Structure formats: structure tokens, C-alpha cells
From TrEMBL:
This is Uncharacterized protein. Keywords: Signal. It comes from Agrocybe pediades. Residues 1-20 form the signal peptide. It comes from the Eukaryota.
Length: 150
């Protein structure tokens, strides 16, 4: 009987985990001066579960950016300039995330140099959602005018 209760609890936990709606707002700033930064806000069923950033030098489109300080030991890793990510829940459920809602956009900006010899960087902003989950009418990501967080 005890085993049946454990099995039932495990099935209910798995069912609850597969019904999650995971979304994210990702901002990436690349500039050769001062390093590159990625910031993310991640929501699980509309509740913010991760908000943070990470810096690296000379990040590129293949760079993996991981934020490990999410709630209850969860983590978030983005690649491809923020167009793809994975969120690992505290229970170990890995959610593969792709573009959602408004998708992805990029901006070129002057990040150093002089008026005669400017240095340009790029910033990327994306909205992501779990690729296998239906978020229904839950709030979705919106762009934040190239701000790190909304």
C-alpha cells in the first residue's frame, strides 16, 4: 500500500511538472569594451523563479550563458544570442525553450571609441517559452526596449 501512495505521488508530480508554462525575457549586450552580459527573467506559471545575469569576455553566438542562482536550485542557460535556452526546475525537469510571442530583435549601438572612430556593439532581446508546453491565457513575455529587466 505504501508503494502505491509513492507511485501515485510521483505520477501526480510528473503530471504537474508537464503542465508548467515556462517563459523568459532575455537581454544580451555585446561590446568589446567592458565585456558582454546576459540578463534573464524566467517565469514558471507566471511566477518569477529566476532573475539575474552573467558576464563573459568576447561572447559569441555559440556562447552558453548560465544563471545558476535561480529559486530553489533551478538554473537557466541560454545560447544563440538568447534565441534558445533551457530551464531546469528544482525537481530536475528540463524545459527546452524557443522563441515565443514577439520573438527576437537586435540593435546596434555605439559602445565606445571616438566620434571619428566609433566602436559598435550589439544588443539582443528575446522572448522565450517552453517548446512543449501550452501556456494558454497565462501572461506572455513582452519586449522591454532593450532593458535588462522589465
Amino acid at each position: 500500500m505504501y508503494f502505491a501512495h509513492q507511485l501515485l505521488a510521483l505520477i501526480m508530480l510528473a503530471a504537474a511538472a508537464t503542465q508548467a508554462c515556462v517563459t523568459a525575457h532575455v537581454y544580451l549586450n555585446n561590446c568589446i569594451i567592458g565585456g558582454d552580459t546576459l540578463s534573464a527573467q524566467v517565469f514558471d506559471n507566471g511566477v518569477e523563479v529566476c532573475k539575474g545575469g552573467v558576464s563573459k569576455n568576447l561572447g559569441g553566438s555559440n556562447t552558453v550563458w548560465c544563471i545558476n542562482g535561480c529559486q530553489n536550485g533551478a538554473s537557466f542557460c541560454a545560447t544563440n544570442n538568447g534565441e534558445h535556452a533551457t530551464y531546469t526546475s528544482p525537481a530536475g525537469v528540463v524545459v527546452d525553450m524557443g522563441l515565443d510571442g514577439p520573438g527576437f530583435h537586435m540593435n546596434r549601438f555605439q559602445c565606445g571609441g571616438t566620434e571619428d572612430h566609433p566602436l559598435f556593439g550589439t544588443e539582443y532581446e528575446s522572448c522565450l517559452a517552453g517548446a512543449t508546453f501550452d501556456c494558454g491565457s497565462r501572461p506572455r513575455c513582452n519586449f522591454c526596449d532593450f532593458k535588462a529587466t522589465c
